[in-house]
Specification:
This protein is mainly beta. 0% of the residues lie in helices and 57% in strands. It has two domains: 44 residues, no CATH class; 91 residues, Immunoglobulin-like (Sandwich), CATH 2.60.40.3080. Strand 11 and strand 12 form a beta hairpin.
Length: 148
């Protein structure tokens, strides 16, 4: 893929809570499978612009970064660390696999530096969730798995 190119992608989930992104060759739907199972007419949900390859620890989004929750997967509690380079408003949200917002917490004027959010799994059923940080209009989203 060339830097700056735009490719439509679809996501095929698997039984482990993960999945694979598949290029859709410019169409709006695609058919894909592994020989035994397949999906037809799966709608594309993202248009991805490839910029460059970076390591997961190198990612920073305009003044903040978010670590993967630890432990992951988890069954009781997990911690999510994030770092701000300047005082910012922070909105933390958790979504289920269907995109339904489960919780949202807003923190006003959070000081620069390292911060941690502790999340208790008692309020969730087992499954795959996404947590999102919105800091001054910039968003970072990561996946977490809750087990029983």
């Amino acid at each position: 893929m060339n830097s700056g190119s735009t490719t439509p992608w679809g996501f095929l989930p698997d039984s482990t809570g993960g999945g694979v992104f598949i290029p859709c060759n410019g169409g709006t739907t695609f058919v894909a499978g592994d020989g035994d199972n397949y999906f037809e007419d799966v709608n594309i949900f993202a248009q991805v612009t490839y910029i460059s390859t970076v390591g997961i620890n190198e990612l920073s989004t305009n003044g903040f970064n978010v670590s993967q929750n630890q432990p992951n997967p988890f069954n009781q509690a997990t911690q999510i660390n994030y770092n701000l380079t300047k005082s910012s408003d922070v909105v933390f949200s958790v979504y289920d696999l269907t995109g339904r917002k489960i919780i949202t917490n807003t923190y006003n004027e959070v000081a620069p530096g390292q911060h941690m959010i502790s999340l208790n799994a008692n309020q969730f059923t087992a499954g795959v969730y996404f947590y999102s940080f919105n800091v001054n209009g910039k968003v970072v989203t990561k996946k977490m798995v809750i087990t029983q």
